[in-house]
């Protein structure tokens, strides 16, 4: 007998369930409200994009792109027909045509494969028989050539590389370009919320499907007041939610003028202390020395503290800019601490970077990260455009609210309707309709229950009131309302009952 499959959510993903989802809704609703007061409009980009978009924006050497994306090949509408043993010629011809019209990815790998296949084919050693040719009669050299053809064909990308989004800044910039948003009044202020996907090692506050609430300001000026206002918006949002232990960390990582020199200096210094670093950091000396500053490895901390700091190597304009960002934060009454190690794990940043931590999150305590990314839109093929934004980890935000006792959301029913008898059922259905129309949450049992059982059920569901409808109530036109907290009860006419509930709920 076949065993029954037991399905489980994929590692690193989870179901969000009631009553917790009520808290998620409250958080999201608050974001809509607060962000709209700052003049932001919502954008909902797709959940998957071309892999190349993320590779280009986030950076090919970053952990996110190099090992954490969920990537797959999406077969294109048109495919060359699979070659028959005897006729690779038709396959080559068709593939070339489809590549010319970009219906098949005209990537270097595909071009090379076709070129090599052509060379083999043109030598004329591969089978070219009409009809069937018993394979065992073919000599070894021909088989070898045929095998090479199969390998080459299988190496081809017969579709588009697509990835589930690991973040949304790249998508927002793509959308800005695609919809010609530079024609709109600048800056364009957009926010988004939704799931992101990164194949990280799951732990508390770290998931493979997680949720972000983020915002981006694109175009117009790069005035430091914009950096400060974006930060002010996140802080206002956190404040509105009552998030505790909020700490803002800021840094400036310079621009293309001063950062390369600092990175070189850092690389030289890192080479000198290479033996004191772990394998990850040793590798990063060559690939991305800034990321060494980010390391949490205990044994490296002392060494990292002694490394040169970017603040001392900013060019004049970056230093002035950073000073002005700090002044603008101060004017807004925003408290921050400076953290020279805050370099962020994505390549697109320049100048201002920031992270916000909150209470109760353990080692994954960053609840928000962001920064300035002038130049990203241009890198993606758009016009030169200023940009700054952030993303909040919603899972972590929720976790922190729960840990500090701010996670409770009232979810019990307002009214449980305990009815008995056919006539009462009809009245109960009408009462439920009217109460729901008035905005109350109502539970109407589908089958008759004894009153005792019904009241027990009402209690379990956390109902505030039980509306008791039996034959007497229906014929008198007076309905009994029981307050479950204290057991008191009173009789009301239908309109009085509504008025009473409106006042007390
Ligand atoms: P990020 O620092 O990679 O930045 O992510 C932002 C936030 O998302 C983190 O601070 C964290 O709260 C949350 N987060 C990241 N990975 C996970 C995970 N595996 N599980 C749970 N939460 C996670 C960005 O994504 C940038 N796009 C932010 C940005 C927008 N910069 C400019 N504009």
What's the multimeric state?
single chain
Unreliable sequence segments: none
**Radius of gyration from the alpha-carbon trace, in angstroms:** 32 Å
Heterogens: histidyl-adenosine monophosphate
- The residue fraction in helices comes out at 40-55%
Enumerate the strands of the largest sheet in spatial order, edge to edge or round the barrel: 1-5-6-11-10-9-7-8
Q: What is the mean pLDDT?
A: 92
Architecture overview:
With 505 residues, the chain is of the alpha+beta class. It is built from 18 helices and 16 strands. The strands form 3 sheets. Strands 1-5-6-11-10-9-7-8 form an 8-stranded mixed sheet, with helices on both faces. Bound molecules: histidyl-adenosine monophosphate. Histidyl-adenosine monophosphate is lined by residues 167, 169, 198, 200, 205-207, 210, 212, 214, 216, 345-346, 366-371, 373, 389-391, 393, 395-396.
Task: Give the SSE layout.
Layout: H1 20-37, E1 41-42, E2 48-50, H2 51-58, H3 63-67, E3 71-75, H4 88-100, H5 108-123, H6 140-154, E4 159-164, H7 169-178, E5 188-197, E6 209-218, H8 224-241, E7 247-252, H9 259-272, H10 279-287, H11 301-305, H12 316-331, E8 337-338, E9 350-357, E10 366-372, H13 376-379, E11 387-393, H14 394-403, E12 415-419, H15 422-437, E13 442-443, H16 451-460, E14 465-469, H17 471-476, E15 479-483, E16 489-492, H18 494-504
Parallel strand pairs: 1-5, 7-8, 12-13, 12-14
Antiparallel strand pairs: 2-4, 3-4, 5-6, 6-11, 7-9, 9-10, 10-11, 14-15, 15-16
Helix pairs in contact: 1-8, 2-7, 4-5, 5-6, 8-12
């Amino acid at each position: 007998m076949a065993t029954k499959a037991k399905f489980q959510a994929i590692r690193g993903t989870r179901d969000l369930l009631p009553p917790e989802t009520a808290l998620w809704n409250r958080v999201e609703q608050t974001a809509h409200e607060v962000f709209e007061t700052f003049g932001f409009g919502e954008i909902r980009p797709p959940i998957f994009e071309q892999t190349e978009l993320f590779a280009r924006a986030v950076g090919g050497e970053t952990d996110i792109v190099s090992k954490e994306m969920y990537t797959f090949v999406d077969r294109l509408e048109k495919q060359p027909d699979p070659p028959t043993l005897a006729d690779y010629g038709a396959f080559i011809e068709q593939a070339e045509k489809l590549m010319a019209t970009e219906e098949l990815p005209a990537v270097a790998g595909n071009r090379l494969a076709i070129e090599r296949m052509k060379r083999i084919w043109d030598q004329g050693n591969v089978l070219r028989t009409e009809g069937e040719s018993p394979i065992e009669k073919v000599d070894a050299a021909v088989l070898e050539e045929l095998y090479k053809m199969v390998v080459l064909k299988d190496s081809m990308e017969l579709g588009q590389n697509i990835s589930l989004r690991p973040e949304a800044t790249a998508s927002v910039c793509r959308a800005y370009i695609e919809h010609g948003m530079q024609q709109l009044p600048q800056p364009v202020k957009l926010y988004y919320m939704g799931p992101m996907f990164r194949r990280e090692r799951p732990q508390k506050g770290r998931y493979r499907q997680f949720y972000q609430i983020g915002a981006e300001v694109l175009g117009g000026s790069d005035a430091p007041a914009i950096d400060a206002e974006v930060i002010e918006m996140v802080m206002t949002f956190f404040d509105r939610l009552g998030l505790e232990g909020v700490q803002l960390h800021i840094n400036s990582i310079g621009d293309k003028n001063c950062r390369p020199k600092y990175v070189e200096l850092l690389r030289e210094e890192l080479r000198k202390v290479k033996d004191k670093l772990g394998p990850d950091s040793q590798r990063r000396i060559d690939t991305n020395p800034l990321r060494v500053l980010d390391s949490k490895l205990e044994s490296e901390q002392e060494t990292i503290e002694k490394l040169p700091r970017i603040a001392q190597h900013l060019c004049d304009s970056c230093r002035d800019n950073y000073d002005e960002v700090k002044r603008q934060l101060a004017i807004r009454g925003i408290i921050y601490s400076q953290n020279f190690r805050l370099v962020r794990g994505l390549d697109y940043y320049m100048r201002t970077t920031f992270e916000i931590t909150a209470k109760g999150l353990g080692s994954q305590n960053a609840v928000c990260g962001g920064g300035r990314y002038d130049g990203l839109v241009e890198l993606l093929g758009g016009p030169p455009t200023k940009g700054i934004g952030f993303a909040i980890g919603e899972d972590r935000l929720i976790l922190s609210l729960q840990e500090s006792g701010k996670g409770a959301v009232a979810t019990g029913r307002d009214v449980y309707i305990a009815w008995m008898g056919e006539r009462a059922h009809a009245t109960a259905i009408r009462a439920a309709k009217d109460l729901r129309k008035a905005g109350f949450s109502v539970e109407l049992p589908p089958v008759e229950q004894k009153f005792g059982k019904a009241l027990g059920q009402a209690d379990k569901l956390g109902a505030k009131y039980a509306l008791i409808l039996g034959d007497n109530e229906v014929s008198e036109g007076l309905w009994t309302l029981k307050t479950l907290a204290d057991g008191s009860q009173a009789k009301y006419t239908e309109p009085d009952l509504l008025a009473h509930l409106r006042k007390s709920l």
